[in-house]
Amino acid sequence: MAAPTKPLVSDLVSSISSLPANYVRPDCDRPNLSEVTLDYSIPLIDLQGLHGPDHSKVIKEIAEACKYYGFFQVKNHGVPKEVIDKMLSISREFFHLPVSERMKNYSDDPMKMTRLSTSFNVKTEKVSNWRDYLRLHCFPLEDYIHEWPTNPPSFREDVGKYCKNARELALRLLDAISESLGLERDYMNSALGKHGQHLAINFYPPCPQPELTYGLPGHADPNVITILLQDDVPGLQVLKEGKWIAVNPIPYTFIVNLGDQIQVLSNDCYKSVLHRAVVNCSKERISIPTFYCPSPDAVIGPAPQLIDDDHPPLYRNYSYSEYYQKFWNRGLNSETCLDMFKN
């Protein structure tokens, strides 16, 4: 199928004053921005305490955040500021390249490991999302980096360094989450097989009618944990007790959210929570989620240590590739795929 002449939102935006029909959500499925709560946010956890006398206090904070929110922010996480600055700046540079340069990376094939695309899955969805994104697989780095863009010139170097740092942070968080469940520290690490990691550089251009559409509609992540870096423009919202909470960016922090695999591994002690991205009419926004995953052949199921007579296993065992395939085929959906794997 030939790509339309302007497949990307970022190239469409300068020529329109109202939202094209294929981006307009039905009335019952719009952001209702006036109903979003700004009264409180997700917990902010200082990871410095993980390596000292406050260790058990931090583990307890992580346990509570995972149980009651499914989301938390982290500071003193060990990723250098200059690595974060370069990642945000090279991402913006990429999306400001001439269209001919960006389109060298374009593909609407969701199975392609490195690709520039738009919306979510253009082959299956009826209503498009107001976002473009560059998706990169990044572990093991040497298997994929040669497929990445070479323009801007420092792209591979800057993004590669960021990916290594994000992976180190993911591994530390997985140890802490295992411990917070009362499991051996390396339980999650071992459960993921050879591990997988990919990221999306999301670009949300200004939108003429933000109240009619989404950057991304409400969804849960299919992976294990997601580590989100965002610029200073708000857009992320998290569902808590039936209300959408706006999560305002704090410079040099990361937002961590649990994916569906943690919900399964924890046998529902912890939840994978719906979240969404809204857009605005005045500012572009960049967000960079790193998705940390099991390898496709890893077999996922509830941790045996969390199962007893009072807590039977709520899910059957399955391979991660089976899960991920179902997620992609269904598209972004407020119902997660988890129900398909329940006992």
From TrEMBL:
UniProt keyword terms in alphabetical order: Dioxygenase, Iron, Metal-binding, Oxidoreductase
Record's keyword annotation contains RNA-binding: no
Annotated GO biological process: defense response to oomycetes
Molecular-function GO term, any one: dioxygenase activity
Cofactors (names): L-ascorbate
Signal peptide: none
Catalysed transformations (reactions): salicylate + NADH + O2 + H(+) = 2,3-dihydroxybenzoate + NAD(+) + H2O
Annotated Fe2OG dioxygenase domain residues: 194-294
Keyword Metal-binding among UniProt keywords: yes
UniProt xrefs under PANTHER family: OXOGLUTARATE/IRON-DEPENDENT DIOXYGENASE (PTHR47991)
Family: Belongs to the iron/ascorbate-dependent oxidoreductase family.
Protein's name in the database: Fe2OG dioxygenase domain-containing protein
Upper taxonomic lineage: Eukaryota, Viridiplantae, Streptophyta, Embryophyta, Tracheophyta
